[in-house]
Design a protein that fits this description.
CATH class of the largest domain: Mainly Alpha
Number of domains: 2
CATH architecture of the largest domain: Orthogonal Bundle
CATH superfamily of the largest domain: MetI-like
Strand content: under 5%
Radius of gyration: 25 Å
Pfam family, one: BPD_transp_1_N
Mean pLDDT: 82
Shape: globular
Order of helices and strands: HHHHHHHHHHHHHHH
Protein name: ABC transporter permease
Transmembrane segments: 21-39, 113-134, 146-171, 211-231, 273-295, 315-338
CATH topology of the largest domain: MetI-like fold
Largest sheet: none
Number of helices: 15
Organism: Uliginosibacterium sediminicola
Main location: membrane
Length: 346
């Protein structure tokens, strides 16, 4: 009997994987097509960004032809997909480098910033959400809700500017613009692109300390938004669990409040929290534009902003593709973790 059931299970799994991959491919293709055609109708001329406004008409037409802008839009998109299948994202007008090279250079800085931000946001957001749920309607709950509302509503660039004024200009606790003090810039060999990791691997602890000083403030401010979101969702999930009958049963059995809250109720919201944290992390990776602008952080967000202002669609398309892959991957990881932690979904 088992030999008859097992092939069926394998075929169903293969079919499910095939459907998932098809959805991923269609999603990314649609994202690319939408970005491509919107970019082509934007009132920005990439040719002028290359030749300048003083170039003569013949030079303009030559570059216009070299970029393939004289072709119909569907042909331009087809050529782009052809190159993409060969791993070629084109060259960035801003730097003259391949887009893949530029993204590999700037993306680790954003990963470093977003990772510390999500650690901060999760480390504070989850306990605050649990605390608020266990004190529903009391002062503690109201304070957490106000903090979450402010963190979620106030623009992140305002927090960034206030942070620079208070902690950098006034108190002198934090670093200013950039990733490290100018005296240490370039002293560490680039291995992973993560400055903290590279400095630790090289044993350059002064550089490591300087990098910590520069990254702490933008990471905390960026993590404030995710902290507010995670705290709100944790509170909501916990309130739902604390009203369940099994919680009443656990309390009747004489279990301590700590055991009831953390060993029973909190364990049942872990699966939901995993998805929330994963999506929040993806949002930080692609939404760090304002913080990177305020702190002059040389990351992915700054690169994308500069490319948009320049009309560099090759760079923009590469960034959009990476953002799409990040979100799709995080969703797949969240689904996989669902099946690991919740047997009912298998």
């Amino acid at each position: 009997m088992s030999t008859l059931i097992l092939p069926g299970l394998n075929s169903r799994r293969l079919a499910a994987i095939g459907r998932r991959l098809t959805v991923v491919a269609v999603t990314l293709l649609g994202l690319l097509a939408l970005t491509f055609f919107i970019g082509r109708v934007m009132p920005l001329d990439p040719v002028l960004s290359i030749v300048g406004s003083d170039a003569d008409q013949s030079t303009y037409q030559q570059v216009y032809h070299q970029l393939g802008l004289d072709q119909p839009l569907y042909m331009q998109f087809a050529y782009y997909l052809r190159d993409l299948l060969h791993g070629d994202l084109g060259r960035a007008l801003m730097t003259g480098n391949p887009v893949t090279t530029d993204i590999a250079r700037v993306f680790p800085a954003t990963i470093e910033l977003a990772t510390l931000a999500i650690v901060f946001g999760t480390g504070l957001g989850v306990p605050l959400g649990v605390y608020a749920a266990t004190r529903r309607g009391r002062w503690g709950d109201q304070i957490v809700r106000v903090i979450s509302l402010c963190g979620y509503s106030v623009p992140v660039f305002w927090f960034g500017m206030m942070g620079l004024i208070v902690f950098y200009a006034w108190l002198g606790w934090a670093g200013g613009a950039g990733r490290v003090d100018l005296a240490y810039d370039g002293l560490v060999e680039r291995r992973t692109g993560l400055l903290l990791v590279d400095a630790a691997l090289a044993g350059e602890w002064e550089v490591f300390g300087s990098a910590i000083r520069f990254i702490t403030l933008p990471a905390c401010i960026l993590g404030l938004h995710s902290m507010a979101y995670i705290a709100r969702m944790t509170r909501s999930f916990m309130l739902n669990q604390l009203n369940q009958e099994y919680i009443i049963t656990a309390r009747v059995k004489g279990l301590s409040e700590f055991e009831v809250v953390w060993h029973h109720a909190f364990r049942n919201i872990l699966v939901q929290l995993l998805t929330i944290v994963a999506l929040a992390y993806g949002g930080l990776l692609e939404g760090a534009v304002l913080i990177e602008t305020v702190f002059a952080w040389p990351g992915f967000g700054s690169y994308l902003t500069s490319s948009l202002l320049l009309g560099d669609m090759n760079a923009v398309m590469g960034c959009v593709l990476l953002i799409g892959i990040i979100f799709v991957t995080l969703n797949l990881v969240a689904d996989a973790l669902y099946q690991v932690f919740d047997p009912r979904t298998r």
